[in-house]
Design goal:
431 residues; mainly beta; five-stranded mixed barrel; 48% strand; globular
């Protein structure tokens, strides 16, 4: 593989609590010993499951933003890359390396929550129902809050946040800020340039460019330990980065490769990029939840395949992600561990190896899964509809609450009632 194959190592670590079919993410790799690299989000703990593969982590090294870390540093929703091997059992492997690298850490400078977005150090960040937020709620975020953002790339260097942490209500002296992006508007005389919409002053910065010279289009990481000055970021350091986000967990030869992300560049079905990684398809590529014509800029999907000698990921299977338009908030009525499902409001909700399990109750169980749930537990479910099956993308246990939430496509209308997922909802004069 050449340097282009590194692009696919964007980030991945999906962790989850129970099995089942995987219809909205990359499918399980079949049995047989082989090398693999996965790219996705952390969906649970206890073991590491990336794109439907449960990795043993006993011997795995963890890297956090280029520094040695440990498993306790990882959080639900973080994007990581995993290098490992698959064993003889389908969907089971062993991780040798897990790598995390955030996209930005700094103050929120503007917000547009009507568009579900805000700006951090010149980078536009989008949030959705699957974004995991620590130390805050999305509704409580405000301009000036210091946040750390992990996520998937979208087109035009935008970020789809998968994990967001509010590290402080406001910048405090000595805090480090950093952001990655492409240099534009370089003015070597004034020693200034932009990262996205963020103006940067590099007059006092240390340059770590590997012998290269600063230039427009160069991809860099910039950092600062000073407060913004009239909106300018006063840089301490500029480090040249590869667009692979500095992932170095390459396969030693042929390997399987699972990549989860958005189409960030698109020329044709045989020439496009996912999360910055070059991808191609052929006549043997299998499509799930779509066809070859579904491929387009900013489409969210999972790709499984192998990397060729030119560093291009040749897709064997592409799964388009169905939108998680269903939201249910209620108490669990029954649990079927054999079917990996629960019943809430009379609705059967199925989980699978890609479902993110989170304990947001006062119990705060980190290694949380279906087996930790009990009848009567309050849960919030985000899900998509696969045919007539409700499939959870995120299942969260919360503290007790009398409010019932049901959000889903309307199936029928009989005023003053509507039916959602077989549940009749009636309105009256007080509605």
């Amino acid at each position: 593989m050449n340097i282009r194959s590194l692009l696919a190592l964007v980030s991945a670590l999906a962790v989850v609590g129970c099995g089942g079919s995987n219809s909205n993410d990359s499918p399980n790799i079949g049995p047989g010993q082989s090398d693999i690299v996965t790219v996705g989000t952390i969906a649970g703990f206890g073991s590491v499951i990336s794109n439907g593969i449960r990795f043993n982590t006993d011997s795995a090294t963890v890297t956090m933003n280029g520094q040695p870390g440990n498993l306790a540093d990882l959080r639900l929703g973080m994007m990581v890359s995993i290098r490992g091997t698959l064993g003889g059992q389908a969907g089971v492997g062993t991780a040798s390396a897990i790598n995390f690298s955030d996209e930005a850490k700094g103050p929120i400078t503007s917000m547009n929550m009507a568009n579900n977005s805000f700006v951090v150090l010149g980078r536009t960040v989008f949030v959705d129902e699957l974004t995991v937020v620590d130390n805050a709620a999305l509704d409580n975020l405000a301009v000036g809050n210091m946040v750390q953002v992990s996520g998937k790339w979208r087109s035009q260097e935008r970020i789809q946040a998968t994990h967001l942490e509010r590290v402080a209500n406001a910048y405090m002296a000595g805090m480090e800020m950093q952001v990655k992006g492409e240099i534009s508007g370089l003015d070597s005389g004034l020693q200034r340039f932009n990262i996205g919409s963020q103006a940067c002053d590099y007059s006092g910065a240390m340059l770590e460019l590997g012998g290269a010279s600063l230039d427009n289009g160069m991809y860099v990481e910039v950092s600062s330990s000073s407060a913004l000055s009239n909106g300018d970021m006063i840089l301490d350091r500029i480090t040249a980065r590869d667009r692979d986000r500095d992932r170095d967990h390459l396969c030693d030869g042929d390997c399987d490769f699972d990549l989860d992300g958005y189409i960030t560049a698109f020329v044709s079905a045989t020439d496009f990029e996912v999360d910055g990684a070059p991808v191609t398809t052929n006549s043997s590529t299998v499509y799930v939840h779509g066809t070859v014509s579904t491929l387009a800029i900013d489409v969210k999907l999972s790709v499984m395949g192998t990397v060729d000698s030119s560093g291009v990921l040749v897709a064997e299977r592409i799964v388009f992600h169905l939108p998680s338009v269903i939201e249910i908030g209620a108490d669990i009525e029954s649990i079927d561990t054999a079917a990996a499902s629960i019943s809430v409001l009379g609705i059967i909700v199925t989980t699978n190896e890609s479902t993110m399990f989170r304990d947001h109750s006062n119990s705060g169980v980190r290694e949380f899964s279906l087996s930790d749930l009990a009848i009567g537990d309050r849960v919030e479910v985000r899900a998509y509809l696969d045919g007539t099956t409700v499939v959870a993308t995120r299942l969260e246990r919360d503290d007790a609450d009398d409010v019932v939430i049901l959000k889903a496509p309307i199936e029928s209308v009989s005023q003053p009632s509507v039916t959602l997922l077989g549940i009749t909802v009636t309105s009256d004069l007080n509605t």
